[in-house]
Prior knowledge:
It is elongated and about 60 Å long. The chain has two domains: about 10-90 and about 205-235, NAD(P)-binding Rossmann-like Domain (Rossmann fold), CATH 3.40.50; about 100-200, Dihydrodipicolinate Reductase, domain 2 (2-Layer Sandwich), CATH 3.30.360.10. The longest helix has 17 residues, at about 100-115. Helices cover about 35% and strands about 25% of the residues. The protein is of the alpha/beta class. It binds NADPH dihydro-nicotinamide-adenine-dinucleotide phosphate and the ligand O=C(O)C1=N[C@H](C(=O)O)C[C@H](O)C1. NADPH dihydro-nicotinamide-adenine-dinucleotide phosphate (NDP) binds near residues 20 and 205. The ligand O=C(O)C1=N[C@H](C(=O)O)C[C@H](O)C1 binds near residues 71, 95 and 183.
Amino acid sequence: MRTDEQPTRISLFAPNGRMGRAIATAVADDPGFEIDADHGDVIVDFSAPSALQASLDRALAAAVPILVGTTGLDDFASRRISAAAKDIAVLRAANTSLGVALLSDLVERAASVLGPEWDIEILEMHHRQKTDAPSGTALALGDAAARGRGTKLNAERGRKGTNLKREEGAIGFASLRGGTVAGDHDVIFAGPEERLILSHRAENRMIFARGALAAAKFLVGKPAGIYSMRDVIDAL
Ligand SMILES: NC(=O)C1=CN([C@@H]2O[C@H](COP(=O)(O)OP(=O)(O)OC[C@H]3O[C@@H](n4cnc5c(N)ncnc54)[C@H](OP(=O)(O)O)[C@@H]3O)[C@@H](O)[C@H]2O)C=CC1
Ligand SMILES: O=C(O)C1=N[C@H](C(=O)O)C[C@H](O)C1
């Protein structure tokens, strides 16, 4: 029987990726965690959409919770996560930084207070290696804004061409790529003669790594179901 004083054992599904390496560094800096490739208390997956079923299968076979930090997941992947969450605890987070978890709450509240007269545009910038766009965080912030408005997300992506008048109630997304940017997100509320801009700047991917460890610790011992970073910050 493991006790609370023992370090939480983290199994990294993709240890050699940028996030895998960042999480290993965060573990090395924190005596509350250790890496255990084969007998983790929790599996941490930051990899690629094509790997999702394999990571879920590993968690199901070991009967341990899993943190899914991978982005670019489609509806089919969401259904796979829901199916796995019948048997194990799954925390899905497009962004594990504590700042973005809080930003999501702020965006939901702002969208609710400002109402549909304020257009919402989401701008994100990431490093040149990123393969998915819009970022998972941008889409999750769009979902938060739609929730605040009491609607489903109607996304306008990558506008190009003519006759592009804004669709009523849509949320626009724009993506920039370049350099080593760890992750910038701006949620712009454009109203009549004023703009409110809620922003987050990731200065280093260690913020995602430390948040991932907080999420992993939160998951240990949790019953089957789907969890989010909101659950993690609510438990802080
Ligand atoms: N939730 C969050 O806070 C964050 C999420 N992310 C997301 O995490 C994911 C990974 O990002 P990042 O670490 O930068 O990406 P990298 O490309 O650096 O790493 C991806 C890793 O996944 C592995 N991988 C890819 N496909 C498979 C597969 N089919 N089976 C097993 N392993 C596989 C790769 O292995 P190999 O090299 O052998 O191909 C590699 O080690 C992305 O979706 C990104 O958007 C990133 C940062 C923060
Ligand atoms: O690929 C990245 O690097 C990041 N991906 C996540 C996303 O798609 O939102 C989180 C963070 O912004 C960094």
